[in-house]
Design goal:
Helix content: 25-40%
Low-confidence stretches: 21-29
CATH class of the largest domain: Alpha Beta
Largest sheet: 4 strands, parallel
Radius of gyration: 20 Å
CATH superfamily of the largest domain: Nitrogenase molybdenum iron protein domain
Strand content: 15-25%
């Protein structure tokens, strides 16, 4: 992976914000109501003190919102910030341990609409638990989630600061690339089956803010595509993620088609999945790396 000193610096700054946020608390008046992404009103008599997060990205958002010290349960792979690694596990995001959740006696459960099993969430609601359902699909929905979570936890001052920081960073990037020449992008999530991103996903938003054009932006969520479709749309750059921080070997499989613009010009790039696939503050690092990759293609035209 190419050296990105300032990306590492940004990650350090983000980690600092997460840790300081997790230790902060500012109580608000009793009686809290927030509308979640299921358009349901979640009401609490007082700020939540025992919160369970049902997705790694939501765990990160809770820390940014200042509610980290109130999180008593998380799902597997909730590994950031480091403090989250010591919190009890309540199963995987797609296979929840209901007994573990009940045993922790949460006063708020933060759920992932498209990731958590619907029947399990409904059961929790039927049992009387307060369940806030989130689905941040765009960059600008991330700060909105931070603000709502902060309101539920009574940590609005910290949450507002995190949300404001996020918006400022995205506005800066948007201003830089809003008039840039477009670059066609194929983003590969996985190889078997071949999965890309559609037009209503976070990664599509990241591509767009960098002045890129998602070649499968006309498709739905997590579309399965064919090699023939990629060849027909002939992207200028191929950007892949994978399972972890290691560049996937299958990214180089595209070299079998030298007629692709991306292959002919050696524009095959990798971004660690946690930086673009988690709906959290760390996506700012993913945005910067995506923009650099796309801009490299743009500059190579000259």
């Amino acid at each position: 992976m190419r050296a990105r000193p300032f990306l590492r610096l940004l990650l350090g700054l983000l980690l600092g914000l997460l840790l300081s946020a997790g230790a902060s608390s500012c109580l608000v008046a009793q009686g809290i109501s927030v509308v979640d992404d299921n358009q349901q009103t979640v009401s609490l008599d007082a700020p939540a003190q025992r919160i369970i997060s049902l997705a790694p990205s939501l765990t990160e958002l809770l820390f940014v919102a200042g509610a980290g010290r109130h999180v008593v349960g998380v799902t597997e792979y909730s590994d950031f910030p480091p403090e989250a690694q010591g919190i009890p596990i309540v199963g995987r995001y797609d296979l929840l341990d209901m007994e573990a959740i009940v045993a922790l006696q949460p006063d708020l459960i933060v759920a992932w609409r498209s990731g958590n099993p619907r029947q399990a969430l409904q059961r929790l609601i039927d049992l009387g638990y307060k369940v806030y359902v989130a689905e941040p699909l765009t960059l600008m929905s991330i700060p909105e989630q931070i603000e709502k979570l902060a309101r539920l936890a009574g940590t609005q001052e910290t949450g507002d600061a995190g949300a404001r920081y996020f918006r400022e960073q995205i506005d800066t990037v948007r201003a830089r690339y809003e008039n840039a020449a477009p670059v066609s992008v194929f983003y590969q999530v996985w190889n078997a089956p071949l999965i890309s991103v559609g037009g209503h996903e976070l990664i599509n938003d990241v591509i767009t803010v960098c002045g890129g054009e998602n070649i499968f932006g006309d498709l739905g969520l997590a579309p399965k595509v064919s090699e023939e479709a990629v060849l027909a749309r002939n992207p200028e750059v191929i950007i892949a993620s994978g399972m972890d921080i290691a560049r996937p070997e299958w990214l180089d499989d595209w070299r079998r088609w030298p007629q692709l613009q991306a292959v002919a010009n050696h524009h095959l790039f990798f971004i660690p999945p946690d930086l673009v696939q988690r709906h959290s503050l760390r996506v700012l690092s993913g945005v910067l790396q995506m923009c650099m990759d796309i801009d490299q293609v743009r500059q190579a035209r000259h």
